[in-house]
Amino acid sequence: MDQIVVTGNGPLKGEIPIAGAKNACLTLMPATLLTDAPLTLTNAPRLSDIKTMKALLESLGAEVQALQDGKVLVMASHDLTSRRADYDIVRKMRASILVLGPLLARYGDAEVSLPGGCAIGARPVDLHLRGLEALGATLDLRDGYVHAKAPGGLKGAEFEFPLVSVGATENVLMAATLAKGTSVLKNVAREPEIVDLARCLRRMGADIEGEGTDTIVVHGVAALGGATHPVVADRIELGTYLLAPAIAGGEVECVGGSRDLIAAFADKLEEAGVEITQTNRGVKAAHKTGRIKAVDVTTQPFPGFPTDLQAQMMALMCTAEGTSVLEETIFENRFMHAPELTRMGARIEVSGGTARVTGVDRLKGAPVMATDLRASVSLILAGLAAEGETVVNRVYHLDRGYESVEDKLSACGARIERMRAA
Ligand code: UD1
Asked: Is 40 left (phi over 0), alpha (psi -120 to 50) or beta?
């Protein structure tokens, strides 16, 4: 298995291109199932999760062409041969559940394997199912699969999500576009990826209002058409790379994205003493002198501080002045990076959903293990400022969500390389 070796090498300087958002692309791709006309996505990220979604759509009989080295995806779902998302693919990636709403809305039946648990928590899909039931679907859980039916088509309805869920909002939103009548979806997620999905669906002919607020109204239409849509910038990749100069010192301009995608996170960086500037090409972070100050963080649904940046923020807090309290409210087991950072000399006490991090002067390089996607990149960030060599194992997690991390960071002067497995 590949490893990434990082050696602390002083301040960074340069620019990093920000790719299209993985999480947006993973919900935009299943939208192809809603129409027999082609859907083209530009600015797609080149990641293993995107290849997994491509394989899933192809297993249903959709055509997915990856052009321009994977940056453009041209999809068409006119002749689907199956409406069953198999366990073998779904178990690799939880976002596979996002084919359920579109299949059901267009064909009136679908079978999708239940994703099961994952490293960062139990992550059930009950909200996806309850929302689809509200639109008139009949669901039966058998043999580890959801067997969903809506023979006469879905019907618009009012549904209030008991808990804010990004994936469930996406699934039910896609399904509602082809339901008969009006759906009023309340307490929906407001993440930029939801806004991007609504924009794409509107380009395809859907009638949607309210995305970005907590209520979305969808007037169902008889059919959707094709569209070309650029994937929104990846705010988590943006936040991750803004942390690189915060941790190692120096100045990095992220090209692509904007501050409003990560406002709560940018505010915390500023509070910690990092200079954040919106430029005409993206967002720049600079940290030239003085020590980073400890700040407290609580993860929240958008527009709050994103759970997907909590691990990386913890890496910054490891060498901050003072003690910071990081509270994780979205997932119940999302501190697996803490013991690995501790191996590098960090002082972290975890108790339930709270981590107390007391800054040390400097971390020391060590062999560490990536346990999930965001945890892996937090270890790389920590390695940028550590004394000596940090060897990150199990980097396949990283490849699910970050395009060529070693090239992007080394272009800014970091000493980082991938050791390929023989
Ligand atoms: C998405 C993102 C993920 C991010 C998360 C929260 C994708 C592909 N992934 O995941 O990177 O960390 O949003 O911002 O977009 N829940 C239920 N029942 C459900 C669904 C969710 O109880 O049916 C719970 C989850 O266990 C979790 C919380 O709701 O505690 C939020 O999860 P959700 O917003 O659904 O996350 P995902 O869509 O899976």
From this structure: beta
